[in-house]
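Bug report

Summary: structure tokens for Nuclease-related domain-containing protein differ between web form and batch submission.
Environment: batch mode, default settings.
Steps: 1) Submit the sequence below via batch. 2) Compare with the web form result.

Sequence submitted:
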Amino acid sequence: MGQLLKLSDYVSRYEIDIYRYPARYVRLKKERWQRLKQDWENRKKGYNDLPFWNDYEKKDSSIIIKSLRLFRRKKKDIKEEVDLPSEQQLRHHTMEELKETFRKELFEFQVNWASSTVSKVSYVKKSYYFDTLLNFLLNELPDTYFVFYEPSFILKKAPVDLEVIVLTPSEVWLIHPLRGNSHTIFQPESDRFWVRKQDGRNERILHPFISLRRMKTVVEGILSEKGMSLPIRTAVVAKDSFIDMPAAGKNIKIIDKRSFDTFKQSILKNKSPIKHVQLKAADILLSQSLTKSEHRLSEGEQ
């Protein structure tokens, strides 16, 4: 599950300490799944009267409560813990249903980390929760992949909005997403425009290569200013639609509904662990990103 380092211009946990939070996320995810799976399996075996939070908290000396303290750090450190499974979650009949619930939970957990800290919070657009590309990146990519989704960077004191950056252990992917459904077709029209065809209507859109060239210039510039250089790959991705054009050459990948699964499998083959150079690059990009947030209200102010 790819890690969401930056979402739009929201405040992010990873901005606090990029060298600590990726490992923390992986550990919490693993512990959460083990807890959820264990309780579900116990329930399937007929142990239907498992205690939940109220009962657990009364048994301070139990092994269970000791393990739960791994999740519940500081009370004020909101959402840096993983709750025990609810009664409803354990009612799933199959393992696949349980996994789907777990994926949805992890998605919301990541969005929370990418929009809040202990003292600050940013308010998330509801559309992000239904964004199919964002869901794919967070649910399907390896834990070692870092995602910047529609981030804004400060260049020469001015904000610059980009689209999707995926920082892998060995390279940077810049992605221009094309939104549509299974009836949508994208076609090049000229050096400056493409056409989006859907339901008998044609809509002219800016050529995605223009956006990718701009993204590459920005990202290369930010990294090179700090003495860093990583291979940069670019792609136009229409996850749910079709792109009607010849191959774009070696520099830009064209990925649509027909080739998306192949692209996905090629990504999943990368088993490399998180690397120091990757963390350093993430730190540089986060330091140049725009953040807008508000201070959390204290309990006395709420």
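Above is the batch result. After comparison, the two runs are identical; trailing whitespace caused the diff. The longest helix spans residues 21-44. The radius of gyration is 22 Å.
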